[in-house]
Specification:
2 copies of one chain form a homodimer.
Chain A (H helix, E strand, L loop, with lengths): L2 E6 L1 H4 L7 H9 L6 E7 L4 H12 L2 E5 L10 H8 L4 E3 L1 H13 L13 E3 L3 E3 L8 E8 L2 E8 L3 H20 L5 E8 L3 H13 L5 E7 L2 E8 L3 H14 L3 E3 L5 H11 L4 E5 L5 H7 L8 E7 L2 H8 L3 H7 L4 H15 L3 E7 L14 E8 L5 E6 L4 H21 L1 H6 L1
Parallel strand pairs in A: 1-2, 1-3, 3-8, 13-14, 13-15
Antiparallel strand pairs in A: 4-5, 6-7, 7-8, 9-11, 9-12, 10-11, 15-16, 16-17
Helix pairs in contact in A: 2-6, 3-4, 7-8, 9-14
C-alpha cells in the first residue's frame, strides 16, 4: 500500500509558507500502519495535474492538500475532476453548510464561495468544521487499478480537525495495516557522530529493525522501526546503559513535553527567568496541555534594568559581574525560584547577536543556571555562534534537558 | 531555467522533522531571479536516485539536501556519484578540514567521518564552517544537456551558512536572471474570502502581474509577482485605500518584525504580560534582531497567584471578575506598562484548553488588552476554539497587530 502526498501552493515554493502538512499527515497515518512513500510540492495550476498523474502511476493512495479555497488560484478540485474524468456537480448539502458557516458568523455568503459547492461526481464529503471548503474522498480507477484520492484544505486549522474527525475514521475502516512500532530516543548536547559511534555496532547487529539518526539543534534522535517488540526493548536497555540519564525516550515528542509529563508525575513546579531566550522556554512549556499544573510563570527580563526591577537582582552584582555572567544567571534562577515559590527554576542570559558581546564573552555566549529548592544552584557556560533563532532554540534545548535530568533525580536529591 | 529541490530523509516522511529547507532555499534564490519549480521529499536510500533521474529530465538545476552525514543511512553522495557516473575519490583537503573540525573541539576524528572526504570526480567543494560534511557543486551532462547539481547538508545550522557564504556567490556568478519583484501585503483578523472579495476585481484587471492569496492563522497574504514596478505601486495604493491601517506590506516578514521596525523608528518601548499565550509574544518579539531597543521585558503570569504576585494585580479583582476577564487583562496591561516604564504594553488572558473554561467563557476564549502611555486601555474579547498551539499563535497575531496599528497612529494619539 503506497501513499504519496502532493502539497499544492505557490507560497510553499516561494518560501512564504513552511509546509507542516506532511509532518501532520505522517504522524497521524503511521499508527494506522501507513507510511508516506514520497511527497511533492507543486505550484498552483497545471503542475498539479502532472504531479497527480505521476503519483497515480506509482501509488495506491494520494493525499492532496490545498487549492480548495474560494479564490481564483484555487484549482485543485477542477484539476482532479478533469484528470480522473469525474465531472464537477453542484452539491446542495455542501452549499447549505457553506451558507450555514457564514450565517452563524452573521455574514453574507461571498459569491466566490459558491464554487466550493462543486464536487467531482461520486466523491464523498469530508466535513469542514472550521471553514467552507469540504474535503473530498474519491475512489478512482487509473491504469486498471483502484486508487484512493483524498483532497484536504490548505489552512492547518481546517485540515487538522478534518483529519482527526473525518479522515482517520475512514482510513481505519478502509483497511488497517499490520501494526508497526516506531520508537525514538534522543540525546541533547552530543554530536551525531559521537552518538552513532557508541550505538552503530549494536544497531547493525540487531535483527529485524530499520534504524536511522537525525540531528537537529543540539539533539540527536535515534529512530527504530520494527514489527516486533523484542529489538525495541533490547535497544532501550542498551541506550540506557550507554548514555545513562542523558538519553530519553522521545518518540517524536519535544523535550518540553517530557519535562511537563515527568514534573507532573512528581508534582514538581517550575519557574523561568529568561533574558537571551526571550520567553521561548515559557512558550515551549506552555505549548503542552497540562502545563498549568507544573509551570507557575516566568520573567522575561530583557533589559538590565528589568533584571533588577522585575527580579530584584542587586544592580551592583550586574555592574560588577556583567549582565551576561554566571553570577547573574544564578541570581536570576534563585530569584525566580523564590518569587514563584517553585521547586525548580531555570534562567538564561547571553548574547543572541547580531549586536552585543564582549571580547571574553562574544556573541553566542550564554549562561544557563538551574536552581532546585534546597540545593546549590548550578550554572554552565555555553558558546553557540549561531543565528538568533537557532541560538535561542539551542539554549532552550539545554535548559529544558537540564530540567528533565534534575526532575529524574529529584527524589534522591531531596533525600541526599 | 528550471530549478527543483529534492529533500532526503526518512525523518521528514515520518513526520519527525518539518522541512524548513525548501522555504530557506526559495527565499534566498528568489532575489537572484530563480524560482523553485517543484520539490520532492524522498526517504534515505534508492528512492533518491529515482527522484534525481526524474528531476534531471525536467530541470536545469537540482538542489539535494541531506544524506551527507557520517552515519550508515547517509547515502546521497554515493547515489549521486552512481547516477551521474562520476566515481567517488578521496579528497585530501576535505579530509584535512574534517580533522581540523574535530581537533579544534579537542576531539578525536571518529572513523565513520572518513567517508565524508570522498567526493564525486570533478565536483567543487562548498566549505562547511559548522560541520564536517562538505557541500558539493557538480556539473553533469544528462540526456545531452548540461545540468547543475548542488548537494547540501541536512542540519539547518550547517546548510544556512553554506548557503550564504558559498552557494549564493557561486549562483550569482553562474548567471543572474532578470530581476523579478515579489511583494506581499497582509491583513490580520479578516477571512480569505472577505479580503479577496474586495481586491479580486482590481487584481484581475491589473496587467503584467501574477497574484495569489494565502491564508494562515488569522492572516491573509496577498502576493504579487511582476517584472515591473508600476502594477506593484498601483496595487499598494489600492490596498491602502481599501483596508486602511488594517493592511501592511509584509513581504514575507512576520508581524513581529514590522512591530520591532516601526517601534524602533518611533522610539517606542514595549512590555508584555502574558497568561494564555505563555511567553509567545515575548518570544516572537525577541526573535527579531534589534528587539532589545524596543522590548523591555515581559511577565508570563500563568497561574492566578502569579498574576497577583508578579504584577501586583488586586486579588479581589481576580476573585470578582474571574482570572479570564477583560478587567484582569486590562489590569495586566496597565501593570506591565507601569512596572516596565514602557510606552506600550499588551496583555493576554484566556483558556487555551483542552481543560478549563466556563459556561459563558468556554475554552478558546481570550481577552487581549493594549495599554498606551497617557491613553485609555483598550480590551477586546475573542473566541478561537482551536488546538492549543494554534490558539496561542492566533492570539499573538492579533496582539502584535494591535501593537502595530497603535504604533502607526502613535504621534496622533499623543497629540490628541
Amino acid at each position: 500500500m503506497k501513499i504519496e502526498v502532493i502539497n499544492t501552493g505557490s507560497e510553499i515554493l516561494l518560501g512564504n509558507t513552511i509546509n507542516t502538512h506532511l509532518a501532520t499527515l505522517a504522524k497521524e497515518l503511521f499508527p494506522l500502519g501507513f507510511r508516506i512513500d514520497r511527497q511533492a510540492t507543486v505550484p498552483d495550476g497545471s503542475a498539479i495535474g502532472q504531479a497527480l498523474r505521476e503519483a497515480l502511476h506509482r501509488a495506491d493512495g494520494i493525499i492532496i492538500t490545498g487549492g480548495l479555497g474560494p479564490t481564483s488560484d484555487d484549482v485543485t478540485r477542477e484539476i482532479v475532476a478533469e484528470t480522473i474524468q469525474a465531472p464537477l456537480e453542484f452539491h446542495n448539502t455542501v452549499w447549505q453548510s457553506i451558507k450555514d458557516f457564514f450565517s452563524k458568523r452573521n455574514r453574507e455568503v461571498p459569491e466566490n464561495n459558491r464554487k466550493q459547492a462543486f464536487v467531482p461526481r461520486g466523491a464523498e464529503i469530508l466535513q469542514n468544521s472550521h471553514g467552507t471548503a469540504p474535503g473530498l474522498w474519491i475512489r478512482a480507477s487509473w491504469e486498471g487499478k483502484e486508487k484512493l484520492l483524498i483532497l484536504l484544505p490548505g489552512p492547518p486549522r481546517e485540515l487538522l480537525p478534518m483529519l482527526t474527525d473525518e479522515l482517520i475514521p475512514r482510513l481505519k475502516a478502509w483497511g488497517q495495516r499490520p501494526p508497526i512500532i516506531q520508537a525514538t530516543w534522543s540525546v541533547i548536547g552530543m554530536g551525531e557522530s559521537a552518538v552513532a559511534d557508541q550505538v552503530e555496532m549494536f544497531l547493525k547487529n540487531l535483527d529485524n529493525v530499520e534504524y536511522g539518526y537525525c540531528a537537529r539543534n543540539g539533539q540527536v534522535d535515534i529512530r527504530l522501526i520494527s514489527d516486533e517488540k523484542t529489538p525495541i526493548e533490547s535497544a532501550e536497555k542498551f541506550f540506557l546503559e550507554t548514555f545513562g540519564t542523558r538519553v530519553f525516550r522521545s518518540d517524536g515528542h519535544p523535550i518540553e513535553s517530557i519535562v511537563i509529563r515527568d514534573a507532573a508525575i512528581k508534582q514538581i513546579t517550575i519557574a523561568t527567568a529568561e533574558s537571551c531566550t526571550g520567553g521561548l522556554i515559557a512558550h515551549r512549556l506552555t505549548n503542552i496541555p497540562g502545563a498549568s499544573n507544573v509551570f507557575c510563570g516566568g520573567w522575561v527580563a530583557y533589559s538590565a534594568a528589568m533584571k533588577a526591577g522585575m527580579l530584584g537582582i542587586d544592580p551592583s552584582l550586574i555592574e560588577q559581574e556583567g549582565v551576561v555572567s554566571g553570577a547573574v544567571a544564578s541570581a536570576m534562577a534563585d530569584a525566580a525560584l523564590r518569587h514563584a515559590k517553585a521547586d525548580m527554576a531555570v534562567a538564561t542570559t547571553g548574547y543572541a547577536g547580531p549586536g552585543g558581546g564582549t571580547k571574553q564573552d562574544p556573541v553566542g555566549t550564554c549562561y544557563i543556571a538551574w536552581s532546585v529548592k534546597g540545593n546549590k544552584t548550578d550554572c554552565e557556560r555555553f558558546l553557540f555562534p549561531l543565528d538568533r533563532e537557532s541560538f535561542k532554540l539551542r539554549i532552550t534545548q539545554i535548559a529544558l534537558d537540564g530540567l528533565r535530568i534534575r526532575i529524574c533525580s529529584h527524589t534522591s536529591i531531596q533525600q541526599g
